[in-house]
Specification:
Elements lengths: L1 H5 L8 E5 L2 E5 L1 H13 L6 E2 L2 H7 L9 H56 L8 H16 L2 H15 L13 H11 L9
Parallel strand pairs: 2-3
Antiparallel strand pairs: 1-2
Helix pairs in contact: 2-3, 4-5
């Protein structure tokens, strides 16, 4: 179909080469005619090589990002994905604390009432002692679920990263490709890379 279309082009053009949907042309006027005739005959997928000819034929090539921009976009997507996963995990942890409070709060209320009543009825204040440690657990969970515990933890973590970075170092430093490959080869009883 494309070869038949080329036969109707005006004379005096330098060269025309048609191969499936790729059209190589020489001449601005020729590019204009090719673009118009292809679209008129229902050919919507075609490519005319050369930026000046693409503009004449009405073809707008997609802008290609440089390799650096592509790497930056990929890294940004990975950071966003990791941050979203972190937010979901924190949301699940907070939701777990709030659900735990419902059950533990009920248990604490019944236990505190029973121990207080028993201490008063039997005149033994020692029965009230277990309520004290149980109240600490309830206070911690309340602070975790509805209080400012997470904000204080975040502030403390930022302070540790700034002023106590040496505490965050891994034993033997960061793992490298060489160390991982060495351990893998030793485990698989393979010769070291240096012997290859």
């Amino acid at each position: 179909k494309l070869h038949n279309l080329v036969e109707g082009f005006p004379r005096g053009v330098e060269a025309v080469k048609v191969s499936k949907f790729h059209v190589n042309v020489h001449g601005f006027e020729m590019a204009t005619h090719i673009g118009a005739m292809l679209r008129k005959n229902g050919v919507s997928t075609f490519q005319i090589h050369g930026p000046e000819y693409e503009e004449a034929a009405g073809v707008h090539a997609p802008q290609r990002s440089s390799p650096g921009n592509g790497q930056n976009d990929l890294m940004e997507r990975q950071i966003l994905m990791q941050n979203e996963m972190r937010e979901r995990q924190m949301a699940m942890q907070i939701a777990w604390s709030r659900e735990f409070i419902k059950y533990y709060g009920t248990f604490f209320g019944l236990a505190a009432f029973a121990l207080t009543a028993g201490a008063i009825k039997r005149k033994k204040p020692g029965l009230f002692v277990p309520v004290i440690p149980l109240s600490f657990v309830l206070a911690y969970q309340m602070d975790m679920a509805y209080g400012t515990l997470i904000h204080r933890m975040r502030g403390e973590a930022e302070s540790i990263m700034v002023s106590e970075g040496d505490r965050l170092s891994m034993p033997h430093g960061m793992p490298t490709f060489e160390s991982i490959e060495k351990a893998r080869r030793a485990k698989a009883h393979l010769p070291p890379l240096s012997e290859k």
